[in-house]
Design goal:
Length: about 230
C-alpha cells in the first residue's frame, strides 16, 4: 500500500489514551506505535521520559514531502469530519462542539509532531517502514498500538494482510491493541470477525474494549480490539 493512499491526521497523547484505553501503568511500558503517522504521541511521551518507538512509512519521506502529506491530511480530515459529523461524533463530549474543534485539535497535534520530527529525524524514536514487516527483535516491546490503519483501510488491505500484520505485532509485543474497528464508509470492517476467529483458534486471548463516551458513534468506532499473545 502506497503511503499516499493513507490519510495522515495526527492525534495527541490524550486521544491515544482514550482510543486505546491506556492507563498510567500502560504508559510506563515499552510501547510501539505502529502507523503513528504525524501523531504527537511520541513527542509528548518523550517529554514525560517514557519509552515509545513510532513506526510508519511516512518517516522515510523527505521532510518537505512529510509536510505536504500533513497539509493534505489536514484538508481531508476537516472535509471528512464535516461530511460525517452526524454519524462519527458525540458532540459536547471530549471538548468537541463542532467540526472546527476536531480539526483544530488534530492540526495542533500534527504541528507538534513536525516540530519534534524536524529535531529528531528518522532512525531512533521514529522508524520508517510498513506492515506486515517489522524490523524489531522478538519481544522488543510490552505493548503495540495500531491506530487508524488496520480495519480502516479494508477496501485496500486483504484479510491475509491483516492477519500477517497482527502476527508480526504479536511477535514483537505480548499485547496488541487496534483501533478503530470501522472502515472509511464508516461501518464495521468485514474483517473484524474473521480476524477474531482466526486469532482465537490460534489460542490468543481476545477482548473488545468498550470506550464508552469516546466521541465516535459508528459501529465499531468506540471499540478497541485487545489481543494478548498465548
Amino acid at each position: 500500500m502506497d503511503v499516499t493512499e493513507v490519510v495522515h491526521w495526527g492525534r495527541d497523547l490524550d486521544e491515544y489514551c482514550q482510543m486505546f484505553a491506556l492507563t498510567d501503568q500502560d504508559l510506563d511500558k515499552r510501547i510501539l506505535g505502529c502507523s503513528d503517522g504525524p501523531a504527537c504521541f511520541n513527542a509528548e511521551m518523550t517529554r514525560q521520559k517514557r519509552s515509545v518507538v513510532s513506526f510508519d512509512p511516512l518517516y522515510g519521506l523527505p521532510l518537505a514531502h512529510i509536510e505536504e502529506r500533513v497539509r493534505h491530511g489536514a484538508e481531508f480530515g476537516r472535509s471528512y469530519s464535516s461530511a460525517h459529523r452526524h454519524d462519527l461524533f458525540r458532540w459536547g463530549t471530549q471538548g468537541y462542539t463542532n467540526v472546527d474543534d476536531v480539526a483544530d485539535r488534530h492540526e495542533a497535534a500534527m504541528s507538534l509532531f513536525l516540530d519534534d520530527f524536524r529535531t529528531e529525524g528518522e532512525g531512533q524514536r521514529y522508524v520508517a517502514g510498513g506492515l506486515p514487516e517489522l524490523p524489531f527483535a522478538d519481544d522488543s516491546f510490552d505493548l503495540a498500538l495500531c491506530g487508524h490503519y488496520l480495519f480502516l483501510y479494508s477496501h485496500l488491505l486483504s484479510l491475509r494482510y491483516h492477519l500477517d500484520s497482527i502476527h508480526q505485532l504479536l511477535r514483537v509485543a505480548r499485547e496488541v491493541r487496534i483501533h478503530p474497528l470501522i472502515d472509511l464508509t464508516p461501518a464495521r470492517s468485514p474483517y473484524v470477525e474473521p480476524v477474531i476467529n482466526a486469532l482465537r483458534a490460534e489460542g490468543h486471548h481476545i477482548s473488545l474494549l468498550d470506550l464508552g463516551r469516546y466521541e465516535r458513534l459508528a459501529n465499531g468506532g468506540n471499540v478497541t480490539l485487545q489481543i494478548c499473545r498465548r
